[in-house]
């Protein structure tokens, strides 16, 4: 298969616009359509459904897309190994990350990254809901937690220490818990699954933070919303230090049970599918994020 035609298909699938994909590659719309038709003829399947109003991926096209990306990644990596690439990376990097982390810590870095790599486009998919890095066909993804998925490889970006916080005014009104047992009855801005979480202190003692023993009138699945609700005085909340470091430093929020933290050993990982070749563009973005964010003061204890 012609890799140029594969690249055209991938770009058309991402944009759902054949003419726009062709223009990005310097092709007239008629030429782009003819090349895609040739690829479909070679594969004996319809990859893209065309109507007068829109373009959409067929079922076969959806199945073929990750393989097309893999072939292009292999070809790019091979050229890089032979010194056959130009000065900087080109193309589009698909990156998925939790929205709350990206807004606070990745968005401010974009101008610097684009200045360093002007020919590389970042396609960012941001959500605090857990995603499938393989099904989503991402080149790279940021994930919090243990790296337990055997289909993924990754590099550590930073620790993800999680601690209890509250608005000082909330504690003045409702009292400050002195022990984990004192959490019973307090307002909790809870996570969506409402599962109990284990706490641990420096001495290795353990306790349980159980939403069922607290008053959970607010349940969220977004880190920014959880922080803002805490700042509004809606109750206690368990937050990643990277999400509340500025508020804690400024005194807008305070630690609750400061000698305790969540006992989940969470880590922020930059992950990519194990089957993927680590392309130059993926390695560059990984190295950039690690250089700017790894070892960030205030994110761990």
UniProtKB/TrEMBL annotation:
Gene Ontology MF terms: DNA binding
Every HTH lysR-type domain range: 1-58
Keywords: DNA-binding, Transcription, Transcription regulation
Keyword check for Transcription regulation: yes
PROSITE patterns: HTH_LYSR
Entry keyword annotation includes Transcription regulation: yes
Domain of life, source organism: Bacteria
Family to which the UniProt record says this protein belongs: Belongs to the LysR transcriptional regulatory family.
Record-given protein name: DNA-binding transcriptional LysR family regulator
């Amino acid at each position: 298969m012609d890799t140029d035609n594969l690249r055209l298909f991938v770009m058309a699938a991402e944009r759902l616009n054949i003419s726009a994909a062709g223009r990005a590659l310097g092709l007239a719309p008629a030429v782009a359509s003819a090349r895609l038709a040739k690829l479909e003829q070679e594969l004996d399947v319809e990859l893209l459904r065309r109507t007068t109003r829109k373009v959409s991926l067929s079922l076969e096209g959806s199945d073929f897309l990750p393989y097309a990306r893999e072939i292009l990644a292999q070809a790019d990596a091979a050229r890089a190994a032979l010194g056959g690439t130009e000065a900087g990376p080109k193309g589009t990097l698909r990156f998925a990350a939790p929205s709350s982390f990206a807004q606070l810590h990745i968005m401010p870095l974009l101008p610097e990254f684009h200045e360093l790599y002007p020919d590389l486009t970042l396609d960012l998919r941001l959500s605090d809901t857990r995603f499938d890095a393989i099904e989503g066909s991402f080149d790279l993804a940021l994930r919090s937690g243990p790296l337990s998925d055997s289909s993924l490889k990754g590099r550590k970006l930073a620790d993800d220490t999680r601690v209890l916080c509250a608005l000082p005014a909330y504690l003045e009104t409702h009292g400050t818990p002195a022990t984990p047992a004192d959490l019973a009855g307090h307002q909790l801005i809870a996570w969506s699954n409402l599962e109990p979480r284990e706490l641990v202190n420096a001495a290795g003692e353990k306790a349980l933070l159980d939403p069922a023993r607290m008053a959970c009138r607010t349940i969220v699945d977004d880190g920014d919303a959880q922080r803002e609700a805490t700042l509004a005085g809606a109750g206690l909340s368990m937050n990643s230090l990277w999400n509340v470091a500025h508020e804690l430093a400024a005194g807008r929020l305070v630690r609750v049970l400061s000698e305790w933290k969540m006992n989940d050993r969470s880590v922020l990982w930059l992950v990519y599918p194990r089957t993927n070749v680590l392309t130059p563009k993926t390695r560059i973005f990984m190295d950039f994020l690690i250089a700017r964010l790894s070892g960030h003061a205030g994110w761990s204890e």
